[in-house]
Structure prediction request, 535 residues.
Amino acid sequence: MAKLEIDGINKRYGDVQALTNISFRVNDGELFGLIGPDGAGKTTLFRILTSLILADSGEASVDGLDIVKDYKELRRHIGYMPGRFSLYQDLSVEENLNFFATVFHTTVQENYHLIKEIYQQLEPFRTRRAGKLSGGMKQKLALCCALIHKPSVLFLDEPTTGVDPVSRKEFWEMLKRLKQQGITIVVSTPYMDEATRCDRIALIQHGQILSIDTPENIRKAYPKKLYRASAPDNFSLLERLRELPEIDSVFLFGEYLHVTLKKDDKKPKDVQLQLIEPGIEDCFIDLLRQK
Amino acid sequence: MNSVIQASQLTKRFGNFTAVDHISFEVAKGEIFGFLGANGAGKTTAMRMLCGLSKPTSGQGLVAGYDIAKQPEEVKKHIGYMSQKFSLYEDLKVWENMQLYAGIYGMNIKQIRPKIDEKLHQLGLFDERNTFVSQLPLGWKQKLAFSVAIFHEPQIVFLDEPTGGVDPITRRQFWELIYEAADRGITIFVTTHYMDEAEYCHRISMMVDGKIEALDTPKNLRERFRAATMDEVFYQLARKGREN
Prediction:
């Protein structure tokens, strides 16, 4: 069953077409990722789906509730964690949590089981003002506040941006456990390596969806053979490869270069190329280049 | 080693909290030096000291030949800085941003004018010289921000998460700019949360709880920690910090 249905959403700000004909569904209990760089339209889409701004055209529903007509009821069903920290800086940790529970006509006790694991890490700081928390703690508090009314769909806008790789991993573990409690999660991120942690993903750039599927299927749909090469000085190798007529594309990828050829099996001489499986980032690059 | 940064036992305490704990290292001219660590490990505090923005509690630092504690204004003049948030003025034109920053760094207007044209040609932005920065695509803004940060020919440029949130192609194009600058002898001091980018650095330091826990080439670090990727190296080191 679809928990979230989006049909033909368009949004324009002045001359900028922020979203173009966005349509997709998110199933009940799914962990769905919206993957794309800054300016792709991720936040605009979140703000439309959470009834904070209106689309120019198109329709969407969450839990069967129309995002425009039923916006009041809708807001009880969703939890939203914006990209920018937006709790009350001068309220303490527990005051913030109580405030959000009260606004949604519930109590912290009633849904404590949902936030227990996360909130326990905040417990030692419960009387500290939110503004004085570290980045990681703020993020955990924001997540608790978005969960306290037991939403059926949770929208998380770039929860891991600017967060180090270890804390990012921990955050995704937390999401996995929330998903196990039956919450549908829509999360956006600019980090391509996080894509594989989602059940399905939409790759988005310039307000358009480039591809939408499971991470595995997106990788399988990569249309070319992908090779890797390396040298003690990869930058020189990059410049050399770029001059060769057989080469279609060459990009830095960690300790390697990733290379595609104009004709898949026509390799240039004197270059060691090893066939590899593409990752989501390779797919994203390919989709950007096709445009 | 012809060093552009020399830090010796550099320390910063805030009350009882030691944010940076006796760190010592050198960065050579033309080197691309990756400065990594988990959030809260002390990277920003260390970087602020090296840029002359925060006075060390103890220890010494020389940046571009100037003492960071005694000559912070000289340090500021002789470095470049670019952060994730670009710090360009959106409502100024491309050339106006260049002129403004060059002026702030004390360049003479007669030097600035011809250099703006030269840089605009180099960047392929000459036709966009009268465009407002707000109208530029993200990738171009990033190029411009980098070029503004090194316009006054500093010996070293500090890049604080320069590629955050940027699409994968633009992110790689940016690293090509970094390589070109390093080839010209500009020293690059860069922080990032993308572990593939750690591989592009000549050497990497890993900060854990205010200390430099490891400092070496990416290859040596991977071998030492028996890790396939820098991501694993980071994970092993940062987790060590948590357990302390």
